[in-house]
Amino acid sequence: LNIAKRLASAIAEKQLSLHFQPQVDLNSGQLIGAEALCRWHDEELGDVSPGKFIPIAEERGMIVALGYWVIEEACRQLAEWRALGHSMPGQLAINIAAQQFEEESLVANLLDSCASFSIEPSQLSLEITESGIMENPEKAIAMTEVLKGKGLGLSIDDFGTGYSSLAYLKRFAADKIKIDISFVRDMLTSDNDRVIVATIIAMANTLGLETIAEGIESQDQIAALLSLGCNQGQGYYFDRPLAAEQFVQRWLC
Ligand code: G
Ligand code: G
Ligand code: MN
Ligand code: NA
């Protein structure tokens, strides 16, 4: 059973799928967007988690092709929902791997997929991890400026777990910071984590960036986040990542 080989054929034959996790306004509970998360069901291996297959795709030179499929499928799905009369509010967030972010063809590919499905680039937001940015910060900064110019949203994912310098952060044309799940998970029990969350929010406010908290599982976390000035969130408290049909039924109807 060669997992890398099976993954390569799954990508080529478009056998992956996307799930969608709602992102909500913490004050109103209203849907403000969603994150697209890749899923792979293999006939022999069963469900393989992205925590397992994304690193394989990155190591074996498949992440760029996988990422292009994700972009196209995200646009196709937005167009399908629109055609069904259930347009998604806000932006659909897509995870972009560091290697993909360094591809010159990324911008043209995004714009092509948008054009194919009559999607405005501003309906998409790209999530790139803090550590991904720091692999090649000058290049990432240049890329973000181009993307921003085209109207795409840009979030820094897993924030707080990388080693970005404030000097780079200031130059990086992001509009949102995603506070990493590890800090949100422990913010009610650990003073350190609560202070880290508070500091990230304060810093984001100073830089004019929005914040969204990942991994919200309780009403107490929502109250704490709101009191610190973060008013967007995502997590099992609201919903798990859902198949497209379920996402429509639960969030777009
Ligand atoms: O969905 P789940 O939380 O199990 O995802 C695990 C990890 O895989 C997360 O870090 C997530 O960002 C990543 N991931 C999920 N879908 C994609 C994708 O389409 N592209 C990339 N690059 N990473 C993804
Ligand atoms: O790294 P990234 O933020 O892209 O990863 C998102 C991952 O986090 C998804 O795989 C999703 O399944 C997972 N996730 C989302 N919400 C929660 C949550 O409330 N609790 C936990 N433990 N995981 C979550
Ligand atoms: Mn993400
Ligand atoms: Na994350």
UniProtKB/TrEMBL annotation:
Segments forming domain EAL: 1-253
Name of the protein in its database record: EAL domain-containing protein
Lineage: Bacteria, Pseudomonadati, Pseudomonadota, Gammaproteobacteria, Oceanospirillales
Shown segment, full-protein numbering: 529 to 781 of 781
